[in-house]
Amino acid sequence: MPKKSDYGASNIQVLQGLEAVRKRPAMYIGSTDRSGLHHIFTEILDNSVDEAIAGYCTRIWVTLHKDGSLSVKDNGRGIPVEKHSQTKVSTLETVMTNLHAGGKFEEGAYKVSGGLHGVGMKCTNALSEWMITTVRRDGGVYQQEYRRGIPQAPVKKVGTLENKEESGTEHRFMPDDEIFTETDFEFKEIVRKCRQHAYLTAGLRISITDERVEEGKDLKIFDLYFEDGIKSYVLFMNIDEKFVNEVPFYVKKEHEGVIVETAIQYTNSMDENVKCYTNNIINPEGGTHLSGFRTALTGAINTYAQKSELLKGLTTTLNGDDVREGLTAVISVKVANPQFEGQTKIKLNNPEVKNAVAKVIRDELLVYFDEHPKEAKAIIDKAILSYKAKAAAKAARDAVIRKSALESTTLPGKLADCISNKPEDCELYIVEGDSAGGSAKQGRDRHTQAVLPLRGKIINTHKYRVDRVLGNNEFKDITTALGVGIGTTLDISKLRYHKVIIMSDADVDGLHITTLVLTLLYRFFKPLIDGGYIYVAQPPLHKVEIGKKKYYFLNDNEKDVFVKKAKTAGKNPVANRFKGLGEMNPEQLWETTMSPETRALKQVHIEDGEEAEKVFEMLMGAEVPPRRRFIQKYAKRANLDI
Ligand code: 0RA
Description:
By secondary structure, this protein is an alpha+beta fold. It has 20 helices and 24 strands. Residues 47-48, 51, 74, 76-77, 79-80, 105, 169 line the site of 3-[3-(1H-pyrrolo[2,3-b]pyridin-5-yl)phenyl]propanoic acid.
């Protein structure tokens, strides 16, 4: 017989596994602070709860002992103690020490491998100064003791049971102060973790006792038992709120292997409070169960509301935001092979769950609405209220837009206006950059041509909310210069110029500016595009001099053909490429780009509204990849006519 303390040293694999956990505990339990300390309790609790979910356990006792240790006891089947056929030691010892045993003993039908890496109880064992596990089953009481994860002796029978039917498992452990920065368990936190489990497992009773009280004082005891499971949970979540539907909605149903359990109750508040669980593990960022739930909720509410003619006077159906105002819900699914995004099980990924949840919730909600017309009407009225509040907010916003547009009737300082006040004769040049603006101001026909220089790149109106756009100076300048107002009061008869001409460099940056201005016009002044008032100037890219004569060309090809021809005629053409509008002197700019006699303007048309919408969304919206693809594809033949 080996000495008691030598027993565990015989298994090298076990020692290596333990060393790994003790060397990098954070990798296994997240951290070694207060949170990690409570995590090793959760690992133990989860196993007893799993036994309850499997239907073999109805009671769990959690005790915070005076010596600082903690115990979790259940009345489940008890961890098997007989020799494991492969490891030749007790199954109990294997599951408590062999970090990679996993498998068979840990993966029941709906079991999520306990803890972060499926090494649950062993982690707690490895990170405890000592741990004692006691199993009651087959008429006997069996026990094994560990120090920092190392078993001190083989599993031993320490007693017989009077009641041969009695069974269960008890773990008691002392968190190791060599590992944890804090070793005092917090009663409140223990209760919080137990409460979640008790709600999610209807019929399970969890009793928590804190023995660490002063001499002579009563023990703190907490009993958690919820006959109605998650239905009780939503009632608890809403404890300080006013209900909209007195009777909560509740369903528990299986669909194609997925067990869906959900409870819903609306409150008078604006808040949405939805908790999602997969196999009793919380998914803070939701996932496929949440998206299935949302689809079903919006669908069922609209279906019932339309059928019952409750949506009279609304121009559209209720949307997701409307039906989620004041919503309190718990969605709990049980899935055989849960897939999560990220190691902390933040988000559920199984695609089949979306369908199952959507089907079950939709069907059962419609039944609930039919059976509880009073609650149904209250819920729908609440959603209609949200819908109307949003419409009112939009009207208020429009009014602000109108006001801001009407307020600024003084023309922008940067605008060099024209003398004529006959809009039919007048043109507004919107010009990129101050230097080009300067040339344009000098070179223009002051009588009919106005110039508004823009500083650098203007705001991308497709990307920002209206209030941001309205605060933008460039936007304000364009708006006041046009004079038509904005939003619902836009009045095209007030347009101050019948030609609005965007003039920017003939390069990629210039094209970008043009697109930004067009986007702005499309979003806020579309009637101007529809009316044919919007143009894009075509500044030349090349100048070719032959003697004293100057020739201008819009693109490389035209220039090349001309130069070649001139050379074969024995002439000596000198070609120059303009870098930008600013490089031309006022006369050149007038001659090439602004003079109605010689210039080439492109009128902007929208040929296909829906297509234009898509192109703008792609060019100016928030998503980068489609835009990059589009630009790569069309860069060589970008055409300003949209
Ligand atoms: C595997 C098999 C069996 C029970 C358990 C695990 C079990 C583990 C824990 C952990 C805490 N409480 C537990 N209760 C049960 C039993 C298999 C059988 O008896 O047929």
